[in-house]
Design goal:
The chain has 195 residues and is mainly beta. It is 0% helix and 52% strand. The mean pLDDT is 89.
Length: 195
């Protein structure tokens, strides 16, 4: 059996993680291998599907897969044990994930320049421990060329707070907002002008 990882990303309560965990069973031998059972201690939050013939066998030189999803029913750490019995051996896999608020109340304020040309934006209400993207649109002042400000990613702390910063050198108007990647919720937009 092989798998890339057993931890799901933080996922909104009642939604399904966009990233599944896939366990691949391989039979590299010349005879069929029995696949006796697949059990899940928390199928409500970690449902699975399989291409394996449970109660049957895995043919020689073939593979099958067990695909698990994460659909948390509550906030905080969640877990399950996925037990796969194949070829007379049971492999127990510890699945983990964190349920988060589906609709965070995000707030973004402008803290201003903390250093020359560095604009700081503290935000609150994001998914605790989740990934936050800072987006910026730039409108150049007359006589200045257009410029693309790349999106940057930040990690919210355990309380859902994040402080992001962006370097703004070229004269013009900068419009900033943040996106909570887990929930898909955007913050309010904040603008500032560089002369």
């Amino acid at each position: 059996m092989t798998w890339a990882g057993l931890a799901f990303p933080t996922t909104g309560v009642g939604t399904t993680s966009p990233t599944p965990v896939v366990i691949t069973l391989s039979n590299n031998g010349t005879t069929a291998v029995p696949v006796a059972s697949i059990t899940d201690s928390n199928a409500g939050e970690f449902p699975f599907t399989t291409t394996c013939q449970v109660g049957g066998s895995l043919a020689p030189s073939s593979i099958c897969a067990v695909t698990t999803q994460f659909r948390p029913s509550g906030i905080g750490p969640r877990s399950a044990t996925l037990a796969i019995n194949a070829n007379g051996t049971t492999q127990s896999l510890a699945l983990t994930g964190t349920g988060a608020t589906v609709n965070p109340q995000i707030s973004l304020v402008a803290a201003g320049d903390v250093a020359p040309n560095v604009f700081t934006l503290p935000g609150t209400g994001f998914t605790p421990g989740g990934i936050v993207e800072l987006h910026t649109n730039y409108t150049p002042a007359p006589g200045n060329p257009p410029n693309v400000v790349p999106t940057t990613t930040w990690l919210a702390d355990t309380l859902g707070n994040v402080t992001a910063s962006v370097t703004t050198v070229a004269p013009g108007t900068y419009e900033h907002w943040m996106l909570d990647v887990t929930s898909g919720v955007q913050s309010n937009h904040v603008t500032h002008v560089v002369m």
